[in-house]
Amino acid sequence: MTADTEAPIGIFDSGFGGLTVARAVIDQLPHEDIVYLGDTARAPYGEQPIASVREYALECLDHLVDQGVKILVIACNSASAAVLRDARERYAVPVVEVILPAARRAVAATRSGRVGVICTEATANSQAYDDAFAAAPQVTLHTVACPRFVGFVEAGITGGPELLTCARTYLDPLWAAGIDTLILGCTHYPLLTGVISYVLGDSVSLVSSAEECAKDAYATLTRLGLAHDRPRHPSHRFLTTGSPQSFEGIGRRLMGDLVVDVEQFV
Ligand code: DGL
């Protein structure tokens, strides 16, 4: 094993939502050390101008590189949208993110060529998903920003009448547009697959950007010979720019025992 193989995977998100990506990475790469940085002090990113998101994201990614990570995983869709064009040129380590793998999966999955993406306002305004589908002219993309979904998830609400009404408002236009594939283009939305599937029905396939990103992390590490191939007891560190207590509280509610001993990052 080289020294690089021993280094941790760096996962970055605006806050807690990227834990869906961390969960998928840990499931698919169980022997790897993880350093997760959530910029909760400046979240939510999804409501901010893309230039601010870009500045915050690059600052956090720089910190993860300083920690000696072997790969950067940008778990946040809003941050991926903001730095998609330049993160790969800026860093010597490989960078994987959520948008391109999800777009690739959707292109492979759709039969009708009508694909939906739901995301934050920052991601929708950036048009990063439109760019990601540029090489697939057979696909018509319908984008809907769903800003209230993040608040529901962080409040621990993943069902009930208020969420259902909200979901219908966001998703009915996508159903009317005849989509057969929907990208969950925000870290928090994999926790809402129950209500989303309920509204859209079984004929619409859901693509989780978290799962696709984790698969890309697996493929990238394996291709580069950087994956740990033997069972070992890995270390999982969680850093936050905000309150460790609040991160741990929400993190444990969303992900259970995965999130312990959260550290303050300044
Ligand atoms: N992580 C963000 C995303 O995936 C959602 C939360 C936020 O707005 O900061 O777009």
Structure summary, number of beta strands: 10
Order of helices and strands: HEHEHEHHEHEHHEHHEHEHEHE
Strand order of the largest sheet: 4-3-1-2-9-10
What is the alpha-carbon Rg in Å? 18 Å
Helical segment count: 13
Span from first to last CA?
Answer: 32 Å
pLDDT average, as an integer? 96
* Bound molecule types: D-glutamic acid
Helix content: 40-55%
User: What is the structural class?
Assistant: alpha/beta
In words, what does this structure look like?
The chain is an alpha/beta fold and 266 residues long. Helices cover 46% and strands 17% of the residues. It is built from 13 helices and 10 strands. It has helices spanning 3-6, 19-28, 50-66, 77-83, 87-90, 99-109, 121-126, 128-132, 148-154, 161-176, 193-200, 209-223, 244-255; strands at residues 9-13, 34-38, 71-74, 95-97, 114-119, 140-145, 181-185, 205-208, 236-240, 263-264. It has a 6-stranded parallel sheet with strand order 4-3-1-2-9-10, with helices on both faces. A 4-stranded parallel sheet has the order 6-5-7-8, with helices on both faces. Strand 1, helix 2 and strand 2 form a beta-alpha-beta unit. The longest helix has 17 residues, at 50-66. The radius of gyration is 18 Å and the shape is globular. The mean pLDDT is 96. D-glutamic acid binds at residues 13-15, 17, 43-46, 76-78, 120, 123, 150, 186-188. D-glutamic acid (DGL) is lined by residues 13-15, 17, 43-46, 76-78, 120, 123, 150, 186-188.
